[in-house]
Structure formats: structure tokens, C-alpha cells
């Protein structure tokens, strides 16, 4: 019972405590706060929607940019492909053009009659001999015996006399020179037609070359046009000679190529070695303010040295010695009291490395040759190898082979024609080059003495072909089939062939004069030979064209 009454009381108290009248009135604002919250939630929703739209726009912009980049890359790729295709077409077109040009040059030989313009009168290869009275074997043999063969003994006696005097003169030159400051002169060597036994025109002139070297501690370092250095086309066949100290490494140190500065020192070279007064280099015959050997300075030094040497030994001889040409360093003439004279050339040269190729200070020039722009460019001569090649090949030929006879007859005919119509662009060196090419091309048995007439015609036809094409290549330069026995430098065998007729392309007047002289020589050949053959009637000499007289 009491428990029940307690429970009823507790229930009544609880109801009284939880009656609404006991709570404050602010609890009645709950509905107003709910609306504000709802409004804020709407504003937040709108803000989120706007942010979503912005992000979607940025994503769309990025996608558009990406597509534009991909399209640009595709355009570049297509452009590259088109460029590659264009380059391929260009290269293919060039190859086709070169092939057509090569075919045209090869085909020209059989189609000279189609050439128009100023070369219409150019004779077809071999056709120029039609209508020409070519001397027969008997006439050629008689001419050679009576006009040319008799000069061999005179050449031998003259060579012996000139060589003996030249040796004495060079010995005197060494005695008057300062061994510590002047160039060191070596023994002379004979080259050219007099020493290859084919010179026929008088006066006979011996060509001697004299190698020289700088005094110690200097040495020569040679560079050629085919050694990698850039030389213009008109200076192919030339090179330069640098005067250096023997202990100087011109390729391994950059102290002479780069300005080091006042506070820097090369550890390989002392200041004494790298700094050379200009007067010292000029004493070594170098071009002003350079280390390159000057051909003009060498000419002056050699002429002065020769003069001093002759003054030393002139009392031993009963003749006078003088310089015959002012522009040639060693063109000398011996004048006897009887009035006779002997001419010879004594020319200073520089040896190329350890070979028999030489840089020659001054070279006899034809009307084809142009003046070299600098006196530091030296012409290279292969005369020693040419003489050696002729001697080597002669051992394999039949007895009394006709190769030298052909060259002598051709040289005689050309010389006589030039005396009638004036000089041309052809020289005896061109004629010898023709012989060297044919010596290598034809078998040994083709040079038997009874085949003189056929080989002479071969030389004339080969020369005519070269004149038409304006191409006569140097025999040694670019010739990979040079006999190994000669020991010829490989650098020149691997070089580009040197066209000796290149000046004809540039000088049309000289080319036309040369071609006219050559064809005139063909027409006058029989008459020129008959004139010097005793048993041929003199009436035959009237065949010479009057205009050439």
C-alpha cells in the first residue's frame, strides 16, 4: 500500500515538473530558426551549382585546348612527311640529272656532229684525219732517223757538262752561306725532257732542281690541297710550307691559336718558343708577319747566293755566267768566248715529307696558267716520279720501243706549228701526259718499233678527244693504279683527279686558238715531216696552208 501511494506521488510530481508552463518563452522561436537554416541551405546549394558549372567550363576549355594541340601536332607531322617526300623527290631528281649528264658526256664521243654554236667546226674524233695525208712508216722512220735521232748524242754531252758545273756551283754556294742562319742546299737532280731523252727542239735546256732545308732547329711542315685544307679550284695542285721549330707540335697545342692572356702560361711551350720576332721569320724567307715560306723571298735569296757562289769560282772557268730570265730564280746562261751559249735552269725546291714529290718555287707557265694569288702557295711537281715511271715501263717494252719516238715526233710537229701560227695552250707537258696515259692503257707489245705509225695516230686521237672534252687528267693525281714499285704517296692517289685542261673552260679564246692550232698541225703534218726528210721531193712541201705561213 505505501509503495503504491509512493508511486502515485512520484507520477504526480513528474507531471507537474514537465508541464510547459515551467519553460521560458524563447523556446517558441524554433520555427523561425528553421526557415533561416533552410534559406542558407538554398544559398549554399546555388553556390555549389555555380562552382560545378565553372568547373565544367574549365574542363571543357582544357579539352578544347588538348584537341587543338593534337591537331597542331598532326599538322606538323603531316608537314614533316610532306617535306621528307619533297626531299626524296629532290634527291631523286638530282640523281636522275647527274645520270643524264654522265650519259651525255659518254655519248658525246659518238655525236660530236650534233654540237652546235661556236664548236660547229670541232672535228669528230678520228674524222679530222680524213683527207689528211698521214706519213707512212717509211717516211716516219726516215724522218726520225735524220731529224731526231742525231740529237741524242748532243743531249748526253750537254747533260754531262751542265751537271758537272752545277755541282761545282752548288758546292761554292754552300761555302759562302752561313750554316747557322742560311738555308741548307742539297745536291741537284735532273728532270724533264732532257733527262727523259725526248727533247727535240733547240736550244736544249737542262732542268735541275735543288732541294733545300731550313737551318736547325727549324723544319718545314708541308700542307697540300688534298690534305683536308680548303684550297680554291684554281689552286688545286698547290700547297703551303710552314716554317716551325723542330720541337714544336703544331697540331697538339692551342697556345699559338688562342689568346691566353697576360696572366696565363702554356705549360708545353715557353714564351721564348712561342714568340718569334718578325725579322727572324723574314730571315727564314717567310712571308711578312707569317710562318709560311715565301717563293719570292726564296727567289731573291737564291739569286744572291748563286751570284756570290759564281764570284767565288769564276776564275776557274773561261766563260761568263748570267741570269737569262728575271722572273725565274735559276734560269742561267753560260756564254763562251766563241759566242756559243748553254742555258739551264737551277730551281730551288722543297721536299714533300719523305717522298720524291717537291714544292717548286717557280714553274714555267703556259698561256693556260693563271697567276697564283699568293706567293706562299707552291706548285707541286711530280717530275721525279714521271722519269722513274718511264724508266720502269721501258723495261717491259720491246727493244727499241716507239713510245719515246711518238712523243718526240709529236713535240716536234707541235713546236713547228706554233712557230708558224703562234703559241697555243698546249705544252710539251700535256703531250707527255698523253703518252703516260697510253703507256699504262695499252699492252707492252703494242709499242713495238714497227707500230710507230699506229701509236702516233693513237696519241693524236687521244689528244683530240681530250681537247673536245676539255679534260686531260694529271697522270699521277687520282690514279689508283700507279705501280707500287714507284713508292708513290697514297695521299695523291686517293685525291680527286686534277684536270690539266680546266683553264680551257674559263678561257674560251685560248681554247679556240689551241683547237685551231691542233687541227692546222694535222693538216700540215705530212708537209712538215717531208720538209725534213731528204728523199721526199720538195714539191710536197707546198701542201702547207698559206695562211699558216
UniProtKB/TrEMBL annotation:
Pfam families: Mab-21_C
Coiled coil (residue ranges): 38-72
GO MF, any single term: protein kinase inhibitor activity
GO CC field: nuclear outer membrane; plasma membrane
The keyword Lipoprotein appears for this protein: no
Chief subcellular location: membrane
Keyword Cell membrane in annotation: yes
Secretion signal span: 1-20
Domain Mab-21-like HhH/H2TH-like: 404-477
InterPro entries assigned: ITPRIP-like, Mab-21_HhH/H2TH-like, MAB21L/cGLR
Membrane topology, as annotated: Single-pass type I membrane protein
Protein keywords: Cell membrane, Coiled coil, Glycoprotein, Membrane, Nucleus, Signal, Transmembrane, Transmembrane helix
Cell compartments where the protein resides: Cell membrane; Nucleus outer membrane
Family under the similarity heading: Belongs to the ITPRIP family.
Role summary: Enhances Ca(2+)-mediated inhibition of inositol 1,4,5-triphosphate receptor (ITPR) Ca(2+) release.
Name the record gives this protein: Inositol 1,4,5-trisphosphate receptor-interacting protein
Native species: Oxyruncus cristatus
Highest classification ranks of the organism: Eukaryota, Metazoa, Chordata, Craniata, Vertebrata
Amino acid at each position: 500500500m505505501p509503495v503504491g501511494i509512493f508511486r502515485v506521488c512520484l507520477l504526480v510530481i513528474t507531471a507537474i515538473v514537465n508541464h510547459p508552463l515551467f519553460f521560458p518563452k524563447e523556446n517558441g522561436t524554433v520555427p523561425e530558426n528553421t526557415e533561416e537554416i533552410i534559406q542558407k541551405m538554398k544559398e549554399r546549394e546555388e553556390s555549389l551549382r555555380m562552382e560545378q558549372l565553372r568547373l565544367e567550363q574549365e574542363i571543357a576549355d582544357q579539352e578544347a585546348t588538348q584537341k587543338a594541340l593534337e591537331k597542331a601536332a598532326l599538322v606538323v607531322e603531316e608537314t614533316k612527311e610532306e617535306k621528307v617526300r619533297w626531299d626524296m623527290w629532290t634527291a631523286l631528281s638530282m640523281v636522275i640529272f647527274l645520270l643524264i649528264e654522265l650519259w651525255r658526256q659518254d655519248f658525246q664521243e659518238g655525236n660530236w656532229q650534233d654540237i652546235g654554236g661556236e664548236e660547229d667546226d670541232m672535228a669528230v674524233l678520228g674524222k679530222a684525219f680524213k683527207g689528211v695525208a698521214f706519213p707512212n712508216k717509211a717516211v716516219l722512220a726516215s724522218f726520225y732517223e735524220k731529224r731526231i735521232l742525231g740529237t741524242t748524242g748532243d743531249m748526253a754531252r750537254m747533260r754531262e757538262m751542265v751537271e758537272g758545273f752545277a755541282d761545282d756551283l752548288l758546292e761554292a754556294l754552300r761555302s759562302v752561306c752561313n750554316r747557322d742562319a742560311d738555308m741548307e742546299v742539297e745536291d741537284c737532280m735532273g728532270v724533264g725532257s732532257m733527262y727523259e731523252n725526248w727533247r727535240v727542239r733547240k736550244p736544249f735546256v737542262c732542268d735541275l732542281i735543288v732541294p733545300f732545308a731550313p737551318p736547325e732547329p727549324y723544319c718545314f711542315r708541308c700542307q697540300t690541297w688534298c690534305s683536308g685544307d680548303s684550297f680554291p679550284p684554281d689552286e688545286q695542285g698547290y700547297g703551303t710550307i710552314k716554317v716551325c721549330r723542330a720541337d714544336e707540335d703544331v697540331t697538339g697545342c692551342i697556345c699559338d691559336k688562342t689568346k691566353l692572356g697576360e696572366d696565363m702560361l702554356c705549360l708545353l711551350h715557353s714564351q721564348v718558343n712561342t714568340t718569334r720576332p718578325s725579322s727572324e721569320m723574314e730571315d727564314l724567307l717567310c712571308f711578312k708577319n707569317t710562318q709560311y715560306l715565301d717563293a719570292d723571298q726564296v727567289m731573291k735569296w737564291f739569286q744572291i747566293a748563286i751570284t756570290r757562289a759564281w764570284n767565288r769560282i769564276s776564275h776557274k772557268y773561261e766563260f761568263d755566267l748570267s741570269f737569262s730570265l728575271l722572273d725565274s730564280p735559276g734560269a742561267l746562261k753560260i756564254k763562251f768566248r766563241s759566242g756559243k751559249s748553254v742555258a739551264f735552269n737551277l730551281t730551288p725546291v722543297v721536299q714533300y715529307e719523305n717522298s720524291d714529290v717537291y714544292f717548286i718555287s717557280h714553274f714555267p707557265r703556259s698561256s693556260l696558267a693563271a697567276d697564283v694569288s699568293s706567293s706562299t702557295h707552291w706548285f707541286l711537281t711530280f717530275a721525279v716520279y714521271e722519269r722513274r715511271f718511264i724508266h720502269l715501263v721501258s723495261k717491259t717494252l720491246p727493244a727499241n720501243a716507239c713510245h719515246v719516238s711518238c712523243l718526240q715526233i709529236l713535240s716536234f710537229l707541235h713546236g713547228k706549228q706554233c712557230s708558224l701560227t703562234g703559241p697555243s695552250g698546249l705544252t710539251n707537258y700535256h703531250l707527255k701526259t698523253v703518252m703516260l696515259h697510253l703507256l699504262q692503257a695499252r699492252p707492252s707489245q703494242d709499242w713495238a718499233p714497227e707500230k710507230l705509225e699506229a701509236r702516233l695516230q693513237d696519241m693524236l686521237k687521244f689528244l683530240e678527244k681530250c681537247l673536245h672534252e676539255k679534260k686531260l687528267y694529271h697522270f699521277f693525281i687520282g690514279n689508283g693504279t700507279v705501280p707500287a714499285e714507284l713508292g708513290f704517296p697514297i695521299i695523291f692517289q686517293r685525291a680527286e683527279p686534277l684536270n690539266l685542261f680546266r683553264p680551257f673552260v674559263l678561257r674560251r679564246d685560248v681554247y679556240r686558238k689551241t683547237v685551231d692550232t691542233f687541227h692546222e698541225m694535222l693538216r700540215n703534218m705530212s708537209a712538215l715531216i717531208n720538209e725534213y726528210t731528204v728523199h721526199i721531193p720538195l714539191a710536197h712541201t707546198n701542201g702547207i696552208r698559206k695562211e699558216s705561213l
